[in-house]
Design brief:
- This protein is an alpha/beta fold.
- Helix 2 (30-44) packs across helix 3.
- It contains 30 helices and 17 strands.
- Strand 6, helix 11 (225-234) and strand 7 form a beta-alpha-beta unit.
- The two termini are 52 Å apart.
- Strands 11-12-10-13-14-9-17 form a seven-stranded parallel beta sheet. A six-stranded parallel beta sheet has the order 3-2-6-7-1-8, sandwiched between helices. The protein has a two-stranded parallel sheet with strand order 4-5.
Length: 669
C-alpha cells in the first residue's frame, strides 16, 4: 500500500497511533496520503471500515476522496461502513440520531440562508428592532460567528466594536428560541449542537468517540473554533487523530477559520507527532523557491523547507511585467494568451488569478475583444452581478424609452413607493395613449392628471429620469456614471440590503469597478456625449455576459485567489500586483498583511511551469486616475530567476514571438 510513496508520505501513512499533524506544502500530495492511509488501515491492519472517519470541507472533496480510496481497496465491500463526509454532514447524521437529547423533533429541518433571514425578520419585529436600520442577513452572519466562537458573546471589544454586533447579541437567544420553536436548525447548529451534546453527555461522547477509532481531518488549517472542539471530542477515547493541512494556505479567516488550530496542535494534543511533506510535485523549482521566499516573511507560521525537483524548460519560469494601467494589463494578458493559443497551447491550461471579483471586468472585455473563450470560476461574470445589471438597466431605459423590461426592473429600485398597482396603472395609461411607458414618463407633466394618487411617486421618478436624460447628453461618461449611481442612492441601498458587511464590500467594489471600466475605456475619449459612448458600451457588456460559447469549451479560467486553492494550471497570470491591490487596501488598513501574503502564495503555487505577474503603474478609482507603488510582496519574493519586462520590452518580445510563429507556419506549408 505504500509503494510509490516518498519516505515522508510513507511515514504519514504508516504512523497510525496517537495524535499526528502533517504539514502538507502546496502540491505535496496530501490527498494521496490520506487515501493511502485509509486503505492501509483497512487492507494492511484489518481495521473495520466503520471505525474510520475522515472529514473535509466540501462534498466534492469527500466524493473524490471516497473514489480514490475505492480504487485502492481490493474488495468493494470494504468501503461499506466507511465515513468520509463534510463536517456538516457528520453533524446532521449525529443530531438526527440523537435529536431528542437536543430537543429537536425526529423530522427537524435545516434552514437555508433564505429561511434564516426570513425568520430573523420575524424575530426583529417581535423584539421591536428595525429591519430598515439593521440588515437581517448581516445579523444572521454575526450570530453565526457567535455560535462558532461563544467567547464573542462576552467579548467587550467585539460587542462595542460595532453596533450591529451588540444588536446581534440581543437577538441571539430569541433567534435560537425561534428556530427551536419551529423544529429547525441552521448550519451552525449541526456542529455546535454536537459539541454541546458531547460536552454535556459523557455517554454520548464515548459512544461516538469509541466508534471512530481513527479520526482524520483534511484542510485542518481551515477549521474554526467549533470544528476544532468537535474533532477533539470525537477523538477523545482512542486519541488517534490525524490532521493534514498547510498554515501557509490558511486564507479563510474572514469566514471564521483559525490558523492557531494548526499552529497549536502540539499544545492541544499531547505526545503528538509532526510530519512535514515538503516536496512539491506540481510546480518547477523556480516557482516553488520564489513562493517559498515570499511566504518566509510571515512571522506566524511553522518552519518548513519546500522544494521541487522539476526544472523549467525553455519558455517556463517567472516574469514580472510593468504596464501603464489596468486596461493595459488586461490587453497584455489577452494578447499573450492569444499568441500562445495560436502556437497550439490549450486555453484550459491558463488561469488569471485576481485578488478581487471586481478585477474581472477588465479581462472579460479584453478577452471578448480577442475572441478568447473564458470561464469565471467561483463567482459571476462581472456584468452579471445584480448591482451592475441595475446600473445598466437605468442606462438602457435612458437610451431606449421603449425598453419596458428594464423599466420594470428600475422603476421601484431602490424602493421609492411605486407598487405593482401603480406599475399596472402606468401600463394601462400607456396602452390607452398608444405610447410606451418610458415615453409617458419622459413627458409626465402632460399625462400627470391621468394618474391621481399615483402621480406623486411616479412624478418623482420621472423627474429623476429627466435629470439623467439631460446629463447623458453631455460628455464625460465616467462623470455621468458617478452622477447616476449617486442620484439613485445605489451604494446606500447595497449597504442596507447586503447579507453581510463582506458581501456589501464586494458589491461596492463592483460599483467602483464599473466607473473605472467606463473611465478606462479608450472609446470614452472619442465620444461627443455619454449617450454615444453608452450606446456601444451596453451592447459590449451584453456580449461579455453572453456565455453560450464559453459553456464546456475549455477556455481560460478567471478566478479569485480565495477560490483557487486546490487547483493547478500550466501557466498562471497574477495581475494587479500593486500596493493596495495585492495586498488589498483593506488588509493594509486592518494590519492583516500575513493572510494577504498567504493568498499571494496560494496564487503563485497554482502555476506548474510559468508564472506571470503584472504591475500597473496607474489605476483608476471612480473615474480618477492615480499612480500606485508596486506590491511590497515583490521585494519579499526577491528577483532571483525572475525576468522583469516593461511595457515597451513586452511589445518587442511579442512581435518577435509573432514573427517566429509566422516563419514556422510558412516553413511547414
Amino acid at each position: 500500500m505504500t509503494t510509490n510513496l516518498t519516505e515522508p508520505q510513507k511515514r504519514a501513512v504508516e504512523t497510525t497511533e496517537g495524535a499526528i499533524l502533517v504539514f502538507a506544502g502546496a502540491g505535496s500530495g496530501k490527498t494521496r496520503v490520506i487515501t493511502h492511509r485509509i486503505a492501509h488501515l483497512i487492507e494492511d491492519l484489518q481495521v473495520k471500515s466503520e471505525n474510520i472517519l475522515a472529514v473535509t470541507f466540501t462534498n466534492k472533496a469527500a466524493r473524490e476522496m471516497k473514489s480514490r480510496v475505492a480504487s485502492l481497496l481490493s474488495q468493494p465491500d470494504e468501503l461499506k461502513g466507511l465515513t468520509i463526509c463534510t463536517f456538516h454532514a457528520l453533524g446532521l447524521r449525529i443530531i438526527r440520531a440523537e435529536h431528542e437529547l437536543l430537543g429537536y423533533p425526529a423530522d427537524f429541518t435545516v434552514y437555508s440562508t433564505y429561511e434564516q433571514t426570513e425568520l430573523m425578520k420575524q424575530v426583529m419585529e417581535e423584539q421591536h428592532i428595525s429591519a430598515e436600520r439593521f440588515n437581517p442577513q448581516t445579523l444572521v452572519a454575526v450570530i453565526s460567528k457567535m455560535k462558532n466562537n461563544p467567547d464573542l458573546l462576552n467579548d467587550p471589544g467585539f460587542l462595542v466594536g460595532s453596533l450591529v454586533n451588540g444588536v446581534a447579541k440581543r437577538l441571539f437567544d430569541p433567534y435560537n428560541a425561534a428556530l427551536k420553536a419551529r423544529g429547525a436548525a441552521d448550519f451552525d447548529d449541526l456542529i455546535t449542537g454536537c459539541v454541546h451534546l458531547f460536552k454535556n453527555n459523557d455517554e454520548i461522547r464515548k459512544k461516538y468517540s469509541s466508534r471512530y477509532r481513527y479520526v482524520m481531518v483534511d484542510e485542518y488549517q481551515d477549521t474554526n473554533n467549533a470544528q476544532f472542539e468537535f474533532v477533539k471530542l470525537l477523538s477523545s477515547v482512542h486519541r488517534n487523530i490525524f490532521v493534514v493541512g498547510d498554515d501557509d494556505q490558511s486564507i479563510y479567516s474572514w469566514r471564521g477559520a483559525d490558523i492557531d488550530n494548526i499552529l497549536s496542535f502540539e499544545r492541544d494534543f499531547e505526545k503528538s507527532t509532526v510530519i512535514r511533506l515538503e516536496e512539491n510535485f506540481r510546480s518547477t523549482g523556480e516557482i516553488v523557491d520564489y513562493a517559498s521566499k515570499l511566504i518566509s516573511n510571515n512571522r506566524k507560521r511553522a518552519q518548513k523547507s519546500c522544494f521541487a525537483k522539476a526544472k523549467g524548460a525553455p519558455g517556463d519560469g517567472i516574469e514580472r511585467h510593468k504596464l501603464a494601467d489596468e486596461t493595459s494589463e488586461a490587453e497584455f494578458v489577452a494578447e499573450t494568451i492569444d499568441t500562445w493559443h495560436s502556437g497550439g497551447f490549450k486555453l484550459s491550461d491558463v488561469a488569471v488569478i485576481v485578488r478581487a471579483n471586481y478585477q474581472t471586468s477588465f479581462f472579460e472585455l479584453a478577452f471578448r475583444k480577442h475572441r478568447l473563450p473564458y470561464t469565471i470560476v467561483g463567482g459571476q461574470k462581472f456584468f452579471e452581478n445584480k448591482e451592475i445589471k441595475d446600473i445598466l438597466a437605468y442606462i438602457r431605459v435612458l437610451l431606449n424609452p421603449a425598453d419596458e423590461i428594464n423599466l420594470r426592473r428600475i422603476i421601484n429600485y431602490p424602493a421609492r413607493g411605486i407598487g405593482n398597482a401603480t406599475i399596472e396603472k402606468l401600463s394601462t395609461v400607456s396602452r390607452s395613449q398608444e405610447l410606451k411607458p418610458g415615453q409617458i414618463l419622459r413627458d409626465f407633466g402632460i399625462f400627470k392628471p391621468l394618474f391621481g394618487n399615483e402621480s406623486k411617486a411616479l412624478g418623482a421618478f420621472a423627474e429623476l429620469m429627466q435629470r439623467f436624460e439631460a446629463e447623458i447628453n453631455r460628455p464625460d461618461p465616467a462623470a455621468f456614471a458617478v452622477k447616476l449611481i449617486d442620484g439613485i442612492k445605489l451604494e446606500a441601498e447595497v449597504k442596507k440590503s447586503a447579507e453581510s458587511e463582506a458581501a456589501a464590500r464586494v458589491r461596492l467594489d463592483n460599483i467602483s469597478a464599473f466607473i473605472t471600466a467606463v473611465a478606462s475605456d479608450p472609446k470614452a475619449e472619442n465620444c461627443k456625449s455619454s449617450r454615444e459612448f453608452f450606446a456601444s458600451f451596453v451592447n459590449d457588456a451584453a456580449l461579455a455576459g453572453d456565455d453560450e460559447e464559453e459553456k464546456g469549451n475549455g477556455g481560460v479560467t478567471i478566478i479569485t485567489a480565495n477560490s483557487a486553492k486546490g487547483l493547478e494550471f500550466e501557466r498562471v497570470f497574477v495581475p494587479g500586483f500593486y500596493q493596495g491591490g495585492f495586498p488589498n487596501h483593506r488588509a493594509i488598513e486592518e494590519h492583516n498583511i500575513e493572510e494577504e501574503r498567504r493568498l499571494a502564495y496560494v496564487a503563485f503555487t497554482r502555476a506548474k511551469r510559468r508564472l506571470v505577474i503584472t504591475i500597473p503603474e496607474n489605476v483608476t478609482f471612480r473615474g480618477n486616475k492615480k499612480s500606485v507603488k508596486p506590491s511590497v510582496f515583490l521585494d519579499d519574493a526577491g528577483s532571483g530567476n525572475v525576468e522583469v519586462v516593461d511595457d515597451e520590452d513586452f511589445r518587442k518580445k511579442l512581435q518577435e514571438m509573432i514573427d517566429r510563429l509566422k516563419n514556422s507556419q510558412q516553413g511547414n506549408s
